[in-house]
Amino acid sequence: MATVEISRLIDERKVSGLQWRAIGFCGLVALLDGFDTQSVAFAAPAIAKDWGINVASFGPGFAAGLAGLTVAALSLGVVGDRVGRKRIIIVSLAMMGIFSLLCARAGSLPQLAIARFFVGLGLGGAMPNIIALTAEYSPARIRSTLITCMCIGIPMGAVIGGAASSPLISAFGWQSLFIVGGILPLALIPLIMIGMPESVRYLVSVERHKAKVRSIIARIAPDLPSDVIVTRQNADVAARGSIAQLFSDRRAATTLTLWFVFFCNLLVMYLLINWLPIVLTTAGIPHTQAIFGTVLFNLGGAIGGYFIARSLDKRQSDNALRFAFFGAAVFIALLGFAMTDVRLALALTFLSGFCGMGALFGMNALTASYYETEIRSTGVGWAHGIGRIGSIIGPVVGGALIGMGAETQTILLIAAVPMLACVAGLLMLTRIGARQADFSPSKLTGAH
């Protein structure tokens, strides 16, 4: 009777239609994630005008959604390793949809903050699981690229939201953004239930659902016999979805360093994502161009993420990530001194996104490669969860600085510093890899 090892099968074959479908569905979830994450930032000026409040008071409102993201990333990634990626993705979409609709009915900032917290639970639960599912259907030779292309749905969702926000708000009010952001996730649920396969590596690792495994293998490799026995590597991983596993087998230093980089990166990214339109407007740039600046920031992240991921796959090195983080620090700092020239300010905004957000997508791919199937959602989820603590702090700090009347240059110079800390963190990862060759990034791009 024929035997095949699942990771080797996926790595050595061309990407099948079933794999593309699974990754495509993950990309659609990421697209909705990006739309819903930034909808409150696009709606904030109109809400502030409608309710007669200062935009600086939106810091806690922004932070509430990010708090939900943090809680879900720390918990639902672990659950995804235990019950499967697909179930958690469906539950997450339901939470995104229902509570986005409730955002449209909010009549005060506390009500909006509560609804955004539960939207954040959905957003945070989806992310580690779509990253894990994409990684597990991707061959090692292009895994970073496919994970990043999937994650590019996030900034593209924000781009769509930015492009749609002005006409929607003008025609139907700020509530329309949340209504659209609620209907779309709910509409996607039945399509995912029918069309998206569970991760085959997950199904093999739990040693159940043999009929499902054979059905998926028949789509990936139709030339194999129907009674083929599917095995897996790393069968001795002790605890599925165990946080302790992130610190065992010499993973502790790597895990903590990844957490540090995500914390610093997300602190800056969410400070800019939430406050950039207001910072640009305060500096004298017209509101429509300020929103366009946010669109450029996200578009830059999408393009930058692709090129960084291609470098990770081709060179098996994190050098591109180091250069990207350093570039982000430079461009963010320069942006503060370019507000008198709208074209230059928008160009620097694009480059800041290209480097800073692009590096974030590269980190998603790198982190997924460090952990085996049994703990991949846990590893990615906890890295995102710790990072989300930074994403909560960032908007609050931004709101405090704006409330104190800090100059734009000061705000953006402060924002540049954590990007340099990310460079230091990647250098530390390289030193850890040099001491522990089995856990270097070049080895881990083949983790199963």
Automatic annotation (TrEMBL):
MF (Gene Ontology): carboxylic acid transmembrane transporter activity
Major facilitator superfamily (MFS) profile domain: residues covered: 22-433
Sequence intervals crossing the membrane: 53-76, 88-107, 113-133, 145-166, 172-194, 256-278, 290-309, 321-339, 345-366, 386-405, 411-429
Listed name of the protein: DsmF
Top-rank taxon, per record: Bacteria
CDD domains xrefs: MFS_PcaK_like (cd17365)
Subcellular location: Membrane
Keywords: Membrane, Transmembrane, Transmembrane helix
Membrane association type: Multi-pass membrane protein
Origin species: Rhizorhabdus dicambivorans
Pfam family, one: MFS_1
